[in-house]
Every structure is written in structure tokens, then in C-alpha cells.
Amino acid sequence: MKKLLRQFNVIAIILMAMLVFTACGNSVEQLISNEQLTMEDFLNDFDYMMQTMEDTFPYFGVVERRLGVDIRGLGRETRAMIENYPYSLEGLASELGISLEDMPELDEQIFWSIIRHEFFSHFLGFIHTYPLDSGLYNMLQLPYSSPSSPLYTSHNHHVFTNPTSQRFYQKQEDFFNTLAEEKGALLQFIFRGYPPVQVPSSIVKTEIIEEDKIAYLNVPSFLSFNVNTNDTLKTFYRNINKYEHLIIDIRDNGGGSPDIWRMLIMKPLWPERNNMPDMPLYAFYKGSKLGKSLGAENLKIEAQNSRNIPETDYLLTMTEIMEANNLPHINEDDVQDLAYGVRFNTSISNIEWRHMHQLRIPNIFYPFYGKIWILINGNNYSGAALFARHAKEMGFATLVGEQTGGAYTTSSGWFFALPNTGIILRWDIDYLTDSYGRALNEFPTTPHHSNRPGMDALETVLQLIEEGSF
């Protein structure tokens, strides 16, 4: 549970750039804006955030059932904390050696700290919920705002390029650097020791565990692959083609683009091209004007790719979907918050050459007729969690390890900017279910074989192979 709340997931097909923090010699006082926002401005931003969640976020019930967090109740508590600042955080300040008189005034950075640490921290990363810090903003700004990027939408372009957000994140970067140099209590008070975002390695590792029998492939991230990775996989697949077992280790893989595992792992290794299940998923959206428009835009985007092919060119009403499909396990309380939806076909057979050419991914084919194992754990989110689920449900591999973390979605990310501070927030807008109506984020993928006592997933799978237990 603790790992689930701590983990951040960033889905990106192309990681364009990461701008590192640079030193700044300005004092903290010099970084404070001349145009101070008022308490009313901050409360209006918070109310805007909560209303936007009401309009677009379909997981209030799932968060409460799975994590025990009442988001609406937590919102009321956090709003009161903002309204009663600095007294509401006097205890924390005192623990850090900051007196009430020396506590900083409420500004954009304190406001960000409160919503980050007092609100989102209770369900952070679950269903991609988090406020961006300057590190994430610098990482994501170009991929989500550039018209040439496959992640581009007009909605997200405005979020990342509006002047208010740009000013906030430049100021936060400078502010963090100054506090990091001083290494004082204020750094802990505002950022709580929260480190800058680091891009995980995308370098795959291969190993021969037993000659002519057991091969091993470690994939630490699905954020981006390069030409060297493509060549490595092609050579590896060719060399182990006649092996009995292939172990694919995605433990601690926080996610990334589903296109990578679809096009570079499942498609090349799948032995029966004419026998690929259609893997239906249902995505449901809230009935507000914004919820419906973003749902319709998401449908249009996915129709241009191969990950999720919509069965209709438009959103259906909940009544139409429920009458046309048997979804016996859909949560009746959650249905009351949903208004529109679509059925997606997510089969690997959707992939065409044009899709691979668009992403510059080579079309390789080395069907593997041996046994494929995938090692998973609770740090598998987003694209990695989807890989585990697809592999299990499509019969591609046997899963070994721990239950995945979740954060399933059909989109590449939707973001929202607060009007007064410019703080950018993210959460998923699609309530995703399987063909029986079960919410994937409430019921994450479980392994076929759990870790044996005293063993990790790799040790467990090697024991299973030795015993012939498969």
C-alpha cells in the first residue's frame, strides 16, 4: 500500500527532454512575486480543482473502497487547512524548528505544498493522480505541447504553455534550487524532502541462465526505447528462438508506452498470428460537458493508433452500453457517476505496419514456441500493469510474483491547470473495466504463481521450471 501511494507514473511514447535543475544565487526573498495572490485566489483555485475532479474524475468510489480515502471529505479538510494557514501547519513547522513568526506567508509554493502533501499524498499516483512539480513539468512540457508529438492534444497544449503555469514552474525550479543550496528547514517544510523526478533507465538487459534452455530479459521501463535497444532485442530473440523458457522481468517497471511492449515484445514473440483474442476493454466517462468532450477527444485519438480501437466513432450512453453488453460485475454505485462510454478492442492483431512506421519501430518477427514467464510486483503501474494484464488474459505468458500496482488507462494523459496559480494536475478520466465490468483499478492483475516463502520472483520461477510445475 505504501509503495502504491508513493509511486509516480509518467506515460510517454517519446521522452523529448529532461531539463535539469541549475544553480540560482537569488535569495528566497527575491524569488517572491511582486503580485501576491490573495486567500480568495487560493481558495478559488482549490474549489476549481475539486469541481474539475467532480466533472472528470470517475474513481471517487474506487479510491474509497481500495485505499479508504474519502476524497470529498479530504478536500473539505484540506480547504480548511489552506484557510487556517499558518496555524494549520504550525505543528509541522515546530517539528522542523520554525517558529510561528518565521513561517512563510501563504503563496503559490506553500499552496502547492499543501495540495501535494496534505491532499494528493493520500492517493498519490493511484490512477495517475498528482500535481506536477518543476521536474515533471520540464520533462513533460515538450512532449505534450509540441504539435509534432504523438502525445499532443489542444487541451494539453494550453495547459503546458499558458503563461501562468510557465511562470509558476520556472519560479518553483529557482525556489527549489535556492532552498536546496541552503539545506535549511524551509526545504523540508515545503518539499518534505521530496526529490526531483529522475528518468528511469530504458536499457534492457539480457542473460542466458542455462544454455539452450532458459533465457532472461529485464525491461526496467517502457518510457522509450532506442535503436540500440531494437537491435539488442532482435539479436536476443534470434539467438534464443529454440530455448525452452524465456523469463521477462518487469519488476519495478513503472510504466510508459503500451506501444513498446505491444510492438517489441508481444507481437514479435507471438507464435500464432491468426489466433489473437480481441481483448475488449470498456472505458466510461462522466456526464459533465468537460468529461464528455475529453472522452470524445480520447476516443478520436485512440482511433488513430493501434492500442485501443473503438468499436464506434462516437461515445455511447451508459444505457446503450449496458443494454448491448453483459457487464455483471460493474459497480452499481459507480455507474451513477458515469454517463458515456465506448468498447475498445485492444488486441495485438490491431497493429499494422503504418502504426509501427509512424513510431519508427521495426517490424521484427521471431515467434517463440517455448514457455514465456513474466515477473511482476506491486511497483508495476500504467503501461507495465497493462502489459501484465494483457499477457495473462491473452494467454501470452505465465505471471510470477506479486499483484501489480494498477493505474490502468486508455489515454496518454490528461492534465488540468489551476487558473490563478498555474499549478498543473493530472488524473485519469476513463473508468476502465474488463469484459465483465470489473474496474481494473480496483482489481489489479494477480500472478498465476505468488512468490514462494523466502524466495523472490526469479528464484520462484526457476524453482517452478526445475520442478516442471507449469
Strand order of the largest sheet: 2-3-4-9-10-14
In CATH, the topology of the largest domain is named: 2-enoyl-CoA Hydratase, Chain A, domain 1
Helix content: 40-55%
Global structural class? alpha/beta
Task: Profile the largest sheet.
Answer: 6 strands, mixed
Chain-averaged pLDDT: 90
Shape: globular
**Can you identify the CATH superfamily of the largest domain?**
2-enoyl-CoA Hydratase, Chain A, domain 1
Uncertain segments of ≥5 residues (pLDDT<50)?
1-34
Number of helices: 19
Distance between the termini: 30 Å
Outline:
The protein is an alpha/beta fold.
Description:
It is built from 19 helices and 14 strands. By secondary structure, it is of the alpha/beta class. It has two domains: 190 residues, no CATH class; 232 residues, Alpha-Beta Complex (2-enoyl-CoA Hydratase, Chain A, domain 1), CATH 3.90.226. The strands form three sheets. Strands 2-3-4-9-10-14 form a six-stranded mixed sheet, sandwiched between helices. Strand 2 and strand 3 form a beta hairpin.
Question: What labels would you give this structure?
Answer:
single chain; 470 residues; alpha/beta; 2 domains; 5-stranded antiparallel β-sheet; 19 helices; globular; disordered N terminus
Topology (SSEs and partners):
Layout: H1 2-6, H2 28-31, H3 39-56, H4 60-67, H5 71-83, H6 90-95, H7 108-119, E1 130-131, H8 134-145, H9 154-161, H10 163-182, H11 185-191, E2 205-210, E3 214-218, H12 227-239, E4 245-249, H13 258-269, E5 280-285, H14 289-303, E6 309-310, E7 316-317, H15 318-324, H16 332-335, E8 340-345, H17 353-358, E9 371-376, H18 382-393, E10 398-401, E11 415-417, E12 424-426, E13 431-433, E14 449-450, H19 457-467
Parallel strand pairs: 3-4, 4-9, 9-10, 10-14
Antiparallel strand pairs: 1-12, 2-3, 5-8, 5-13, 6-8, 7-8, 11-12
Helix pairs in contact: 3-5, 5-7, 8-9, 8-10, 13-18
